[in-house]
Amino acid sequence: MVSYAEHWSTPGGAPVLLTLNAGGSLVGVLVYGARSWPGAPATRAVLFAVGLVASYGLLALLPPPPYMHALMLLTGVFLAPLLTVTFLLVGKLAPPGTMSEAFAWLVTLFASGTSLGSAVVGTALQHTGEHRAAACGVLGTLVTLAILALSRRRLSAAHAERSEAPETALPADA
Question: What does the pLDDT look like over 87-103, one tens digit per residue?
Fold first, then answer.
């Protein structure tokens, strides 16, 4: 974002682009959370990942600022619901008594992926240019999409099995 903002002399720079992404995320998660959605959460995760791959693909074209602003909003619309569904799946699939650990591992994976992605994008930006660096983000989301698509049936079956199990109340001192 910083390189793009400097190249295009975007008013407000990279913070404006990131703010637009955050605004899109807010809209996406509010719309997602405002109603019940049909289908298994794993299927919804795949659909949100498809939207994210497509919107990141358009970002990789590095369009002029007005289009980039719209695309930053759009990527956020898919990102926050994908994260929400991911946390929902982890919460439902974690064995009893391991939910905190499961969420900690999920956050660790997010942080590790972001760190690795930043390193790869920075190296690509330095050695190959903005378009290839931006394409790295698309490749990262393609990996996410592939993992979700390949595990969708298994995740859906496990989620259905867990959803049918009776809920247990937490102890009063938990």
Answer: 999 998 899 999 999 99
